Amino acid sequence: MTVLTHAFTPGPIVASGQVKLTLMAPVARFSLRLRAANIPAVSKAIGVDLATTVGVRAANGTTESICLGPDEWLIIAKPDDADTVTKVCADVYASATHSLTEVSAREVTVRIEGERASELLTIGCPRDIDSIPVGGGCRTVIDGVTVVLWRDAEQSFRMDIWRSFALHIIDLLCTGCKEFAAE
Amino acid sequence: MLLIHCPYCNQTLPELEFTYAGEAHIARPADPSSVSDEEWRDFLFIRTNVKGPHYERWRHFHGCGRYFNAVRDTVSDRFLITYKTDDPRPELSKLLEKSK
């Protein structure tokens, strides 16, 4: 069997036009699951708030968290901080049971920005993009693929896509950019 | 497209984020080895197949990932209510009254 692995070299994908796409540099990602009673202890250890409302984010420097479900969070950190996050969580494990899984290699992140960025997302995303507040995010679907969407500004988004689906979604977004350019 | 209210996200979201997961409130026998073949068959396969308001499970697959329950009219596809898995089964007469 031949397996083709894409390198996913960070850099611009669509560099000009009404929407720009950029493949972002790798970051450390963690999937965190825990019960409500243990939130304060784990949150203090990692040094970032863990919101209890789905879609709400928190940040402390380069470490970010987003609540994806009633007992599920995604933690993003600098690649250098990955070992620290693992260690601080292991230290509180005895008193605050949780499940922390490093999923850094699972996804790649694409930055989508430009005056029509939110319009571009409607090419495959059924959710009302206007309902996502600036500084918020959500896990949703685009053309059948689950993605995590972070809204950093009115027209600036980050999309975390599982690697195996990333080429398809990036291709879809490029098609949308070409359609804008052809108008 | 149907808009479905997820009781865990507390948002009304497009149907494409959800998957259907069969009839709700079907409890697995506590002691499977003590039930008869007929009871086990009923648990596995026999469903009410209602025409009208149907108690069913849905999963917010492309979202919080949670299963929840809903009452949906199988004729009109209208959702009367969605509620968390742990919540008690809502009374149908009250739901129908409310939806009028």
TrEMBL record, chain A:
Recorded GO MF terms: sarcosine oxidase activity
Listed Pfam families: SoxG
Protein name, per record: Sarcosine oxidase subunit gamma
Domain of life: Bacteria
Species whose genome carries this gene: Thalassospira tepidiphila
Organism lineage string: Bacteria, Pseudomonadati, Pseudomonadota, Alphaproteobacteria, Rhodospirillales
Enzyme Commission numbers on file: 1.5.3.1
Record-linked SUPFAM superfamilies: Folate-binding domain
Enzyme class, first EC level, given as a word: oxidoreductase
Annotated keywords: Oxidoreductase
UniProtKB/TrEMBL annotation, chain B:
Keywords noted in UniProt: Oxidoreductase
Entries under Gene3D superfamilies matching the protein: Folate-binding superfamily (3.30.2270.10)
GO MF, one example: sarcosine oxidase activity
EC number per UniProt: 1.5.3.1
Superkingdom of origin organism: Bacteria
Alphabetical list of InterPro entries matching this protein: SoxD (IPR006279), SoxD_sf (IPR038561)
Zinc recorded as keyword: no
This protein's record includes keyword Transport: no
Endpoints of the signal sequence: none
Protein name: Sarcosine oxidase subunit delta
